[in-house]
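PROTEIN–LIGAND DATA SHEET

This sheet pairs a single protein chain with one bound small molecule, fe (ii) ion, given as SMILES. Inputs appear in the order they were entered. The predicted three-dimensional arrangement of chain and ligand is reported afterwards as a token string under its own label.
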Amino acid sequence: MLTNKLKFYGLGIGLRDEIQKDILNYLEASSTQTLIQWLEIIPENYINNGGLPRKHFQEVLAKGIPLIPHGVNLSIGSAPQNKKRLEFDFYLLKGLKELFQEIKAPWFSDHLVNSRIGSHYFQELIPVPFTKEAAEVVANNIKYLEDYFQIPFLFENPSYYTTYGLRELREQTFINLVLEKARCGFLLDINNVLVNSINHKYLPKPFLDDLDLRKVVQVHLGGLKRGYTSKLTGHSIKVLDSHSEPVSDVALDLFSYVIKKTKVKAVLLERDANFSEEGFLGLLYELKQIRGIMDSKYDSEEESETEKTKLATNPTENIISTEPVALETEANNRTASSLIDNKAANVNINPAAIPSTSSIPAIMADNDLIKNQLANDLDFLNEELSDLG
Ligand SMILES: [Fe+2]
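PREDICTION REPORTED AS:
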């Protein structure tokens, strides 16, 4: 399904349970200027019997904040068993369709993986073999899903920690082939490219250059953490796509590289774990960093005005200041409460709507600690990448 007519959604974050209250408070307090322009939801969490309540969805939508679903269970890499076409779980599809219609989802996405055999789902996202036959299977599954849901589908490149012995195609050729056959959109997870590049020993920029970036509709930006060596098998994983740490500077640099090459409709700060380390204010800090990169891209483009106009005319999507966050320049002797004031002033939110200072962990109150942590990660990543180059 065509994706080039989709509108620009800007920057978003995942509506996860742990930060849901903070996000709703933030949106309440920042009715005219916000770093959060849309929210990603994991749709499977909200459907059928036992799903989480959706009552706040209409409240969010009424504020002009779109909800965009990102699924985890469609398993588009699963092959048909004794049938011409893969049999999807219609209980799942029906629940998803009702939800997509309710929230007026502009598109939906899922991972380029296999996570189901027959009626058995498993937790892990297993990579699909990079073969022409698998590309055909995936493309047929995507076409079926788009036909069923009647909205565009994007697939996401996953991180993976093992490979199949035989590789008929390079990963980037495989991704391009699926895009071509399925005629769908692409959700480029930049951190997954970085994680895979280190674990599987290739340089991320040439990999990105080989991808058909014109098909990128959405970008995911998440954090990684150092991997481990299995005591049992000796198998070593250098980095893990953990979604539990701040986005690394290397990933931000790759993001900057990508958005110079293509028009992206939506960008997500992908954080799913370890919220207590830095608190919601830490996420606002990261959003601000990402937004700065996005705004500088628009400023440097002739057509930027079009995008900005689109953004500014949406009542909840005004351009924010791109001045550096005070946290970066006045790091020392900062108390948690002054951190709130500076951050709140910077993003124009009402400090009263932000959680109490006691919920801000020490790591965010001490900027030097964060800087050291990020600097260490950067040194580590740069070392790994220079070994590859
Ligand atoms: Fe992702």
